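Blinded run. Sample ID left blank on purpose so nobody reads anything into the name before looking at the predicted structure. Input follows.
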Amino acid sequence: KQNAAGQGQRIASTMARSSGSLRPQGFAAGAGFPLRHSVIGRALPHAVGARVPLAAALLLALVPVALLRLSSSGLPFAGTRATLSHAAGASGSKLSLAATKDKVKEEKKQDPDEKAQPRGAESVKIATRAEDYAQWYLDVIAAADLISDAPVRGCKVLRPNGFAIWENIQRFMDPKLRKMGVQNAYFPLLIPVSFLAKEAAHVEGFAKECAVVTHHRLKSVPAEMGPDGKMKPASVDVDPDSKLAEPFVVRPTSETIVWHMYGQWIKSYTDLPLKMNQWVNVMRWEMRTRPFLRSSEFLWQEGHTAHATKEDADQQARDALKLYIELAQDQLALPLFPGRKSDRERFAGADETYTIEALAQNGMAIQAGTSHFLGQNFAKAFDVTFETQEQTKEFVWATSWGVSTRLIGAIIMAHSDDTGIILPPVVAATQVVILPMFSKDPVIQANVLKAAEDLRDTLENNGIRVDIDYRVDVRPGAKFFTYERKGVPLRLELGPRDLEEGIAMGKRRTGGDKVKIQLSNAVEEVRAQLDGVLKDLHARSDALRERLTTRIHSREEFDARLKEREIGMMKVPWGGNDEDEEKLQEDTGITLRCYPLQQEPVPEGEVCPLTGKPSRIWALFAKAY
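Blinded prediction complete.
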């Protein structure tokens, strides 16, 4: 213990220099983290082995820290306040279990009054979309066992069914990224506050969402007798002597740390283009959260590229958007609107932001992914230059782009029904569930189960994700209900009579009549049914997009649309500026989602119905999550 404590004294001075970025070669070498090069390795050399999983190392590193909102006290940001009352440490307030419980109760009291409340999967009765859309969304998530509430406010635990969706998104995208010349890497979770200050527009966009690490150690507080004669239990507190020389933000996004490292790696035109991606978690302190759509911590993929020319960088940003369209529109069948953000809505620090906007069944928009052309802003902030072929010095051109677990929320809101979740086959944890039917004859029952296992093996050997429900004692209707709520795209029923005919009876989650699946041709026929599920979802999405997209010709039409229960996307010949856009949002709650990439000519002499100014471009407006 004394050795560990002594090592801990040196954490503050070594944290910045001992946190390393894993470049593609190192990241690909394995999931283990080289402990001897880490902060934990220096602090606890005898407590842990030579290598530990990366997630465990990060967790251990973050235990003895305090989290703050960026504040004007000693930090280069003003106008914000502390989030955790015990974070400063110098006050000596004790983080006892009782105090923690009181804090949780206090935060719950401060939450906005939300009508919708999560329910347990085992007892949930899914509300209908018509009666309570917000509650319906939470009920669908609960019934499918996707997440659970975490003990940290604003964070969620992704259960296996929910995490599998994200894993399958990753499995689809990773090979596509590699074909684009992008390599996976890993950059530190902790970023020096001074890095954010180098890019003014960037820090302004994220300052109020940052969680900040200010101390590196806790201390034990022994039980003691209070002035009232009652024994105070033992607790822990922030050690005021462990205050860091410079605070760190918990990664809200990684542009700053990436460009700090790119400045060390890029020297010549021969080093370009440099394309890296990481699959990580980020922290953005949200006060009002909604599962998958908005949370304090979420998972995402973020790509960062460096280029020798403006044209190459902008093309990279557009290529990333094309990949997102392929994923979200082609594979996930979302009702999608690809476009370009307005100046007011673009990413902080970007010259241009491209976006994919999805439409929910209640007519609200969801920003499902973005790709940013960053110009030379970050290269200039971090002094990243390269020597050209003509032996001149030039600043590098940059992009960044990402999609997150927000996509899961978009899938739920676009496709699910009053029975439960509906998942596109590409991301479903289980694509096919086989339900062996009951037989009183033990020999026949054994044959049915054996046939179910043979069918499973055949499908799995051909890349189809399959599960068998062995509960032959459970009534078929109850099992059908279970897998409909879990969103399994296709179920196969296999009974004694089916086995005699050499078939299984298939039923799509999207509806329709049951179909016969020949066991002798099961792979091709099951794939055809899964393709049919995707076609069904595309047809529904096309219909939803058509029904909830309205062209606006006058302010009266716009105001009338706002009174509709499902407002949807409103296509407007826009002529306003940032001030007009801001006032429109303040007055109506409507935001300019994007300028569609496919632009039809604006009629000559057209006047913007919302500003009275000459129209110059078509724009999409909607209420958004």
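Unblinding after everyone has recorded impressions. Residues 510 and 536 are 7 Å apart (CA to CA).
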